[in-house]
Amino acid sequence: MRVGCRSNVNEAMELPQVELISGTCVSATVDLRIMETTDLHMHLHPYDYYADCPDPDLGLTRLAELIDAARQEVPNALLFDNGDFLQGTPVGDFIAHDRGLRDGDLHPVTEAMNALSYDAITLGNHEFNYGLGFLDKALARAEFPVVSANILRAAGEAPRRDHHYKPPYTLLRRMLRDRSGRVYPICIGVIGVAPPQVTIWERQSLRGHIQTRDMVETVRAFVPEMREAGADLVIVLAHSGIGPIRHSENMENAVIPLAGIAGVDLILSGHSHQLFPSPIFANIPGIDVERGTVCGKPTVMSGFFGSHLGLIDLQMIHTGGCWMVLTSKVTTRSLRDAVASSKPEAPAQKPHVPVRTPKVRKIIERTHLEVIENIRQPVGHCDGPINSFFVYLGKTAATALVAQAQQDFVARRVAKTELARLPILSSVSPCKAGGLSGPRNFSNVQQGILTLRAISDLYLYPNTVAACKVTGADLALWLERAASAYHRIHPGLAEQFLMDPGFPSYNFEIIFGLDYEIDLSVPARFAADGTERDPDASRIRNLTYQGAPIDPDAEFLLCTNSFRAYGAGGFAGTGAERVVFEDRTTTREVLRAFIARQDMVRISNDGPFRLQPVRDASAILHTSVAAHAHLDTVAEHAPESLGVDAQGFMRLRVTV
Ligand code: MN
Ligand code: MG
Fold first, then answer.
1. In DSSP terms, which residues pair with 169 in a beta bridge?
2. Which of 50-54, 210-214, 501-505 holds the top average pLDDT?
3. Residue 4 pLDDT
4. What are φ and ψ of residue 223, in 5° steps?
5. Rounded to an integer, what distance in angstroms lies between the CA atom of residue 486 and that of residue 475?
């Protein structure tokens, strides 16, 4: 019986090597470990490049130690990466923009993956951030298959007639050793998919070169072909998170419908930067967080930035030429725990399992040293600290600087065009404001010399500058969407959580050039994913432009980034038809040039919005422990530290 059609073998049963009456030979138990890394985002060396200090909780070098150890523990192991590896730290930008890749150069992430002997990988959406030419060069010397079934040179009339950018799947032929030392052949089919939205998100570089197709439709079409070609086990490398239960065309987080496809055995997931199994997915129909299954299929998602290694451990038997899975166990191992626990006894090294960490460390350290030298270069000066600790209380220096640079850039470029007659505004969201990315995820720039490091700390994303023509009505909705980041605050109640942690800071857009207040006593109009929950709810109060209320029909030029302008997050007034200005210059380069042009950057921490007081209420803001030194900047909220929580956030009680 093939793996795809499981039998009910007793889970705990151990099968000795026996002759069945039929004469078929049954193997002893075969232990197969599937390992996942995902969303590495160029976190290689354990280092926080924004703070310029070591961070042992992240990165591929330290993950390599876990991978080495995990390989020692079992006779059979395979290693996969699930995408979003190429972009995300100043290291990624350094290689793409400063050092560059010549033909034949090895990108350090590829070199490290070669050294770690990955069995296969798939592409995430961020692989396309630096353009196709760069991606081609970065992967040219990969010594492992790269699969991607729904990223296409050109779509055909059906998935199997598509012209693919990379092969849609690969068949890995391996020999697996059973507990008595005998070996048996297995064919493992590995298919990869990523959110089809990548062509919208990376429109500038992919337009005319890449098309995409729905992930579920694609996998459904290829699984029978993979089975026919001999796959005993089918693994989906899904650069996609766990989202809606029902399939809808081109859905972004499609793990549940993917797991429902007949013939799919295991899912490695990612993209949403979460952990699976984890209790946050309990109570979703079809998901078993104890067993780590989605629709009965073992599924893993191993965090982000190299925080965790994902493991699916299968016990299988080989019988009558076929494979059967007896049991599965899904776990994630975190670097933080590995750091915290005193070094566990290293398992006796097996001569046939080489230790790869030293080689990986060497590859990565070389680039790391070049990068820290580069990011310490001075660019300019600032007359005060610039941080994002209190952005949700309206203290917006970190975003204001980006907004000014963006607006200055657009204003110059449109000066002699028809667009110059429109009032110009600039919208920016804080790149780093705690949330699910943790207590270190805040911009924190000191007064004095501004280095390239500081610029990266203020603007993480490889976005480019764009502008949309929007109406006054769009602006009001845009701000309602952003103001939905807050929990509702009830009058007369103390210590209510201020922020909804599921609402990413990059959707907390702040429009500079307007003036407004946010009333937290009423419900949010939008859900975190952008769906409108309550069309009558309105938190934005006293919205004015140059001291006057805004006419809903008035037109404005709103500077933002390409990602947002083309519709990411579903903000009002965005989409291809609303984009009236775009440029290939990255926002970070615009920021660098803006700072370099000034002798001294002077930036106000008082932003365009304030929270309206809620009667007799206080709230808890989760911020950085480093915010302690800056409490005077929010004195009007009577801040009081309630100590540090288990995650490492400072819990700050504030009046609102
Ligand atoms: Mn990612
Ligand atoms: Mg992604």
1. 191
2. 210-214
3. 44
4. -60, -45
5. 18
The ligand whose atoms approach the alpha carbon of 201 most closely is: 2
User: Is pLDDT at 520 greater than 50 in this prediction?
Assistant: yes
Ligand 1 mean position to 42 CA, how many Å?
10
Ligand nearest to the CA of 238: 2
Query: What is the distance in A from the centroid of ligand 1 to the CA of 241?
Result: 10
CA–CA dist 214, 254 (Å, integer) = 9
Q: What is the pLDDT of residues 529-549, one digit of tens each?
A: 899 999 999 999 999 999 999
| pLDDT on residue 9 | 38
The CATH class of 377-655 is: alpha beta
Report the chain's mean pLDDT, rounded to a whole number: 93
DSSP type of residue 571: -
- Ligand nearest the Cα atom of residue 124: 2
Q: Which residues hold their Cβ within 5 A of ligand 2, which is an ion?
A: 84, 124-125, 271
**C-alpha of residue 404 to centroid of ligand 2, in Å:** 29
Distance between Cα 250 and ligand 2 center (Å): 15
Indicate the DSSP class of residue 94.
I
Q: Tokens for 71, please give them.
A: 């390989």
> How many angstroms is it from 283 CA to the middle of ligand 2?
25
* pLDDT category of residue 338 using cuts at 50, 70 and 90: confident
Q: What is the DSSP letter of 345?
A: P
Distance from the alpha carbon of residue 85 to the mean position of ligand 2, in angstroms: 9
Ligand 1 center to 40 CA (angstroms): 7
pLDDT digits (tens, 9 = 90+) for 621-653: 999 999 999 999 999 999 999 999 999 999 999
Instruction: Indicate whether 122 pLDDT > 90.
Output: yes
Fold category of 31-372 in CATH: Purple Acid Phosphatase; chain A, domain 2 (3.60.21)
First to last CA, the chain: 63
Instruction: Report CA(432)–ligand 1 centroid distance (Å).
Output: 15
Could you tell me the residue ranges of all domains in the chain? 31-372, 377-655
